[in-house]
Amino acid sequence: MLEGVKVTDIKKLPDERGFFAEVFREDWEEFVGEDKIVQANLSMVYPGIIKAWHRHTRGQVDYFLVLKGAVKLCAYDEKKKQLDEIILSSERLQLARIPGHYWHGSKVISSEPALMIYFVTKLYDYKNPDEERKAWNDLSIIDSKTGKPFDWNKLPHK
Question: What span, in angstroms and rounded, lies between the C-alpha atoms of 158 and 152?
Fold first, then answer.
């Protein structure tokens, strides 16, 4: 994994009524470090939709949790030409931490819409957004496994 990219399992506590899960705690020091969450966002995305690529250059860190469906989340370090792929799903609750200086994006890979909540360490500035963007199919994003431009639509290996 790229430095600072982390994934942690979320403990589900089931009972006869359903389940309870703590999805973020500031005392998860090994995972959170010194990050301070200041905003939470909810996103619903339709199957097959790609939302990529963007990055934050002012120190923002993003934490992603898929509540419904499944998502392929990617982070890319253009200096190292390293790409990390993380599969997040409601079947296995996991929280993924992506330092914002990496190019990152996602694709819904489930047959149903994905519902994702994400937490950020910087408030969104409507007048001066901290977002630099590239096209979803930008040829400068290299798949570190193949050495070729990353293909969001490449089928998984069998």
Answer: 17
CATH number at residue 53: 2.60.120.10
Do residues 144 and 82 touch, judged by C-beta distance below 8 A? yes
**Cα separation of 136 and 53, whole Å?**
5
**Strand 103-108 relative to strand 70-77: parallel, antiparallel, unpaired?**
antiparallel
User: Would you state the pLDDT for residue 63?
Assistant: 98
Residue 131 covered by a domain: no
Q: Tell me the pTM.
A: 0.93
8 A C-beta contact, residue 66 and residue 87: no
Residue 91 lies in a domain: yes
Residue ranges making up the domain that contains 56: 6-123
* Average pLDDT value over all residues in the chain: 95
Residues β-bridged to residue 50: 107
The answer as to whether 141 is a domain residue is no
Q: Is residue 54 part of a domain?
A: yes
The predicted pLDDT at position 61 comes to 97
pLDDT in tens, 53-96: 999 999 999 999 999 999 999 999 999 999 999 999 999 999 99
